[in-house]
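Internal tracking record. Fields below are filled automatically when a chain is submitted to the structure queue. Please do not edit lines marked as system-generated. If the sequence contains nonstandard residues, flag them in the REMARKS field before resubmitting.
Queue: standard
Priority: normal
Entity type: single polypeptide chain
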Amino acid sequence: MLNKLRLRLRALFFKSKMEEELDEEVRFHLEREIEENIARGMSPEEARLAALRSFGGVERVKEESRDERGIRLLDEVRQDLRYGARMLVKHPGFTFIAVLTLALGIGANTAIFSVVNAVLLRPLPFNEPERLVMVWLKGSEAAGGDRVPLPVADLLDWRAQNRSFESVGAFRTAAYNYIGGESPERVRVADVTANFFTTLGAQPALGRTFQSDEERPGAQQVVVISQQFWRKNFAADPQVIGRSINLSGASFTIIGVMPEAFDYPEREVELWIARQLQAPTQRGPFVLRSVARLKPSVTLPQARAEMNSMKSSFAGEKFDFNVLPINEFIVGEAKPAILMLLTAVTLVLLIAAANVANLLLARAASREKEIAIRAALGASRWRVVRQLLTESLLLALIGGGLGLLMAWRGVDLLLKLAPEDLPRLQQIGIDGRVFGWTALVSLLTGLVFGLAPALQSASLNLDETLKEGGRGETEGSSKRRWRNLLVVSELAMAVMLLIGAGLLLNSFWRLQRVDPGVDPRQTLTMQIPLQGPRYAQSQQANAFYDQLIERVKTLPGVRAAAVSNSLPPDEQPWSDDFTIEGRPVDPREALIANDIRVSPEYFQTIGARLLRGRTFSSTDSGNAPQVMVINDTLARRYFSRENPIGKRINRGTESQPSVWEIIGVVGDIKYKGLGKETLPAFYQPIAQNTWRGVFLVVKTDTADPLGLAGAVSNEIRSLDRELPVTQIRTLEQRLYASVAQPRFRTAIVALFAALALTLASIGIYGVISYSVTQRTHEMGIRIALGARSRDVLSLVVKQGMALTVIGLSVGLSASFALTRLMKTLLFGVSPTDPLTFIVISLLLTFVALLACWIPARRATKADPLLALRSQ
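SYSTEM-GENERATED OUTPUT FOLLOWS
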């Protein structure tokens, strides 16, 4: 086997040398035979002739030797490639259009596959990631659905009773103030249990990770840093282990550096600190996300069954866990969107291939004489098919090469357009797997669009070809059927893409019209984290807020200012459980609501609507009775038949009650995203329940609120120079950024749909235009016999519209079945929305009519005398 391969490679790259060796070998055997014949008594001439007769012809022997070594096949392939290249160079216009069409399809396909490769196919940087799962609590939609974070109490209960998991870890993400560079910096931190890294099976690049005793209360505070943080702040110093850094006023000792590829649980996380677990006095708050490793012999259903049978340490409470593979957490909602993009770009590629196939069928008509001569000279059908397929594959490979270059630029464009929360974004690029995919797609595309024309051309009947040619180059019915089938396929696929794009556009339009519950105009926002010993007491933090708000309000152009621990549309607060005074507690379902802390003028500053009662005032201080404002969802859900004003809510435990009186109801505000259901929420005065990581909200009179950012930042620094100010944006910018993912996928699919519509319209235009050219003789006779222009116009347009109706019917039927798979990507619109189907049908019909009308008009202007004379 290896010897044959070696011989074929030598024949491919050293043909002349191989031919010389073959000549020498044949000459040697011939001379030996002549010598033996002379030894038998023959004369030299008789000996030579006898040897030649024995050999049966020198050239025949050479051919048999070449066949034995596989050389002739390689030689024929080389000839096919050389001839195919000459044919492409001979017709530069055809080659340019075909290569460009294929490059667009293959390039787009490669660019999207690079995203699929990075996000869905590339293995996670963990040991045996298939055994890793994420664990959540399941609750009602009001409580957060099937992905409710765990409280510390549930995590400890689960650890103690667990039999299905090898290791159970947990984490939450937060932001800390890093004081160590030129200026204060806000860094993303993961607060993790000690076994977090061992659960994942992740090893540090330098140093070590956490030990079990480092999660005990009072243990030394240690930190593991990311590769990026290490390079940026310590210049990749290998002696960094043991050094200390200041995070929000506390000292942490560096014990390890993680590899560059490790970016869990979020790409933005730069530091991991050991969470010190304390025995809880109540079940909430619900803040932890858990990651666990299954034992080798345990399946996911078995783990789910065992977990739901556990007992809570809190009387009357029960567990209802949701266990999902870790990849679903990392990929999240991006997976269906990415698969949809891959499907869309595949349809574009198939439409491009169908277009090129139609070009080849049209070109084959001009090559019928060439093919007929080849067949008459003895070329087999397979030989003709192979030659034509070689030309198709050459086109596809050239188109694939150009498409790869386009994809290289396209990936850069995708990275600029892609939303920041797209998972594994930094890993998207052209690598060996993407290159291999492009090569495979190019070869398959060449076979797809080249096979039908090749088979058609190879099956020519010489008599029929001559007869059809004698009738004035009219197209054979078999070729016409193939061309029509390709156009119908193009139209059907274009309909599917257009309807998908139409549904996404409709959905995005509805999403942007969602009422966020606030007035975002002329509103400046920024984040201010109060952390460290300077703000350890609530009075210190509240004093800072009061001073800051008063200073900001005195700035020119400022109407109002406030602080809050949450901000619409997607800075979601944490949630906590509660009970309503005077109502029995239902052990089957805890009441959970978003917990939001605000300063008195918050609602006026963001433009929230007051529905009942009052909002907070300066008198709702730390010493005043505890009060809260609830949102409309909480009021309707739990106080639907009574006035909630004056009702009391308990947020504490039986031994340590914390009772709050409801004083007002405000309209719903989106804190979890515009497309998500609004959850119950209660608001508390920040003076009565202090929060140290807040957003400052400033309502201005200026058209550009960002113009005040410098002045506001200066006021903050005048109060505390060590406070970093981050996320400086207008509220309108926040709303715009919150729909980045649906905007991205809608824009990409709309682009592909526009390209598909263009290719499909070119396809139907090409078919009708070619048909008009082929029927010049017929049109001339019709006009000569008195046919009116509108009759000829109608005849041609009807041909094209018949194909359009068939393609439209097939596309609508397929879309009706397939768009249901898009349900999770749509907002406020049905996957089978009638209006979208009707509008897309009318759009495609109009474009197809225009594509048919242009060649039809040309047919009506044909000179019958010239048309007849040309025949």
